[in-house]
Amino acid sequence: MKYSKILSTTFVFALTCAAAFGVQAASYKVVGETIPQSLTGKAGDPANGRAVAIHRQKGNCLACHQMPIPEQQFHGEVGPPLHDVGSRMKAGELRLRVVDPKVLDKDSIMPGFLNAKHNLAQKKWAGKSMLSAQEIEDVVAYLLTLKGSYTK
Amino acid sequence: MKLKTLTSMVVALSAGALLAACQVDKAPDSVSGYTFATKDTQAMQDDNFSNPAMLWVGIGEEEWIKKDGSAGKSCASCHGGAKPGSDEEGMYAIDPVLDTSGGATKISMKGVATKYPIFDKASKKPMVLEERINLCRTKNMKAKAWKWESDQMMGTTMLVKMQSRGMPIMSTADQASSPLNGAWKAGMKFFNERRGQMDMACKNCHDDYPGTRIRANMLTQAQVNGFPTFRLKWQKPGTIHRRYAGCNKMVRAKHFKRGSNEYKNLEVYMTWRSRGLKVETPAVRN
User: Domain B54-162 carries which CATH code?
Assistant: First the structure.
């Protein structure tokens, strides 16, 4: 895996979202390879995080990742399996990967789920992020529970 | 070095050069979507009797001989039968640059599909096969243009492309001297540009992950050699411009009209990317 860019400096990203869409503005700080602070200050709900990860219109993580979600068929294999990701990574690392994976690899295929500024987005989605800040906290809380091992 | 070795080396080298000159340019590592399809889907494509797209080819065959328009002509009035056999020169039937000033018509449609998109001198833009067919309809037959994805248009396009089945796609659009070079550049930019709420480029899926499953779908290199393609999910054939729009929408990006300059440029680039692959139209895909 090529986490080619180790960030030594700290960047502040301020996402400005059109108020017209009613999307919450969220700001976050990247420190090294992490976003250490919660995006909302509210604890994540792992059960909702699991639902968001499955939901095809929301996280749709199963498009690319195999996860311990046996009731869903056809898990994708574009990204690494996530069965043990909670024992390999801390909350801050997981948060950065869901918020903006392109910080770690600018060529990554994985979408940044808090990104609300896109090139040529359909009108319906323009100015909106794929997930809300709280949904991302929920997904991170869910990922932290994944401490199993991957068997095909 | 022994003289004998030297001579054989020279012979080998010049034979190599000769071979290279005769060989059709092939994009490195390019493989047809066929390779990634299931055995069942491949079998469906291989057998003309089970290939569901043949129904549309049949529509094309009817259209080919049907007189339409105020000139009282059909395709066959100018081109004779679509099928190869009579005309061995068919491969060079249509010049890669369209010049409508000349009046020559060739008989067979063999090889025609390997040259498209061509450059249209009049509009200074690429011309794809659907547009060429409509030009014949409006200019030579004085008939109405067909809708981009009508059964008649897809059937006739398939019929024409089918006459090149097994022949390699050719494109020199990457060369600065090619009149299609500007379109090729614009198409390449489109292919590599991230777009949509998901912020993905065509490249992210089709250059980076072919052979990998995205949910239940096996990603391919998105080669153009089978289009118009019968897609099992659609339960009918679709043009490559329909597929472009579908992939744009999938990443929640704006899509463009069938026949738009954006998609024609993309087709020029993607045809170059498919060069050397054999025409498979009408292909069957999942």
Answer: 1.10.760.10
